UniProtKB/TrEMBL annotation:
Protein family: Belongs to the enoyl-CoA hydratase/isomerase family.
Keywords: Lyase, Plasmid
Xref: InterPro entries: ClpP/crotonase-like_dom_sf (IPR029045), Enoyl-CoA_hyd/isom_CS (IPR018376), Enoyl-CoA_hydra/iso (IPR001753), Enoyl-CoA_hydra_C (IPR014748)
Protein name according to UniProt: 2,3-dehydroadipyl-CoA hydratase
GO BP term (any one): fatty acid beta-oxidation
Organism domain of life: Bacteria
GO molecular function, one term: hydro-lyase activity
Cross-referenced Pfam families: ECH_1
Length: 257
């Protein structure tokens, strides 16, 4: 039973994970990262779960790594930091992950949001990497994923100045796909998750993997992977069902095979 987050099943095929450390603006301590990684592993294993929405509170998606916990770690503690393994487990999640972001989305919180495949933000969301103000730098993918998302100039500005950007700026820069009224952010993320949950699971999984390849491989390798994945899907029952349903003018019933 997790203590730092709640898990609901608001739609068929969709899990909603809500970070719940209101006393620390959802700062990501070891326990929270451990519990989040464990919940994603459960969602990974559950064939019924087709997509996950991750959210925080209206005031904060997450205000970063837990600075009070960081204060207790010396260099040896950092080298043996169990959170590194938790981050790796979160990054390995292979089903669609949608972040519904309101309020502060800072430091490790922004890095966590960037682990999501789709980001939906409320108008009041603020994205930033303020680690430089603490004499450190992002350590959970912030320099790499932010630059890939928003480009060099804005990533440099955010990481080196520590200054945050608002939701509209984040959308213009490509970090966020949609901006909503803050009270509609989760609803919108769930609606997108519901649509994805109805698609053929193998196609969704391979399409996500292929899209992520574009971030860390050259074009020729990415195209090779895409062709391979496309060929794999050609042998699935869901491809046959999708084409048959189109011809019969009905909704497809995908089985994940
Ligand atoms: N860690 C631990 N506690 C935090 C926290 C954090 N990252 N952010 C906020 N809190 C706590 C505050 O200490 C406070 O608790 P107390 O009442 O017990 O003092 C409570 O949450 C509410 O916060 P504030 O009173 O500060 O709320 P505010 O509305 O005045 O300010 C804020 C909000 C601007 C987000 C401010 O809290 C803030 O600057 N937080 C730190 C943001 C930050 O620097 N994040 C980066 C962390 S380093 C990192 O993430 C490293 C990495 O990449 C892995």
């Amino acid at each position: 039973m997790p203590h730092t987050l709640s898990v609901d099943a608001p739609e068929q095929g969709v899990r909603l994970i809500t970070l719940q450390r209101p006393e620390a603006l959802n700062a990501l301590n070891t326990q929270l990262l451990d519990e989040l990684a464990a919940e994603l592993a459960l969602a990974e294993q559950d064939a019924e779960t087709r997509a996950v929405v991750l959210t925080g509170s209206r005031k904060a998606f997450a205000a970063g790594a837990d600075i009070k916990e960081m204060a207790e770690r010396d260099l040896v503690g950092i080298l043996e930091d169990p959170r590194v393994a938790h981050w790796q487990r979160i990054a390995a999640f292979s089903k669609p992950l949608i972040a519904a972001v309101n309020g502060f989305c800072l430091g490790g919180g922004c890095e966590l949001a960037m682990h999501a495949d789709i980001l939906i933000a409320g108008e009041d969301a603020r994205f930033g990497q303020p680690e430089i103000n603490l004499g450190i730098m992002p350590g959970a993918g912030g320099t790499q994923r932010l630059l890939r998302a928003v480009g060099k100039s804005l990533a440099m500005q955010m990481v080196l100045s520590g200054q945050a950007i608002d939701a509209r700026h984040a959308q213009r820069a490509g970090l966020v796909s949609e901006v909503t009224l803050p009270e509609l952010t989760i609803e919108r993320a769930l609606a997108i998750a519901r649509v994805i949950a109805q698609k053929a699971p193998l196609a969704v999984r391979l399409a996500k993997e292929a899209l992520l390849k574009a971030e860390d491989t050259d074009l020729a390798s990415g195209l090779r992977f895409e062709r391979h994945a496309f060929t794999v899907l050609a042998g699935t029952a869901d491809r046959a069902e999708g084409i048959r349903a189109f011809q019969e003018k009905r909704r497809p019933e995908f089985t994940g095979r």
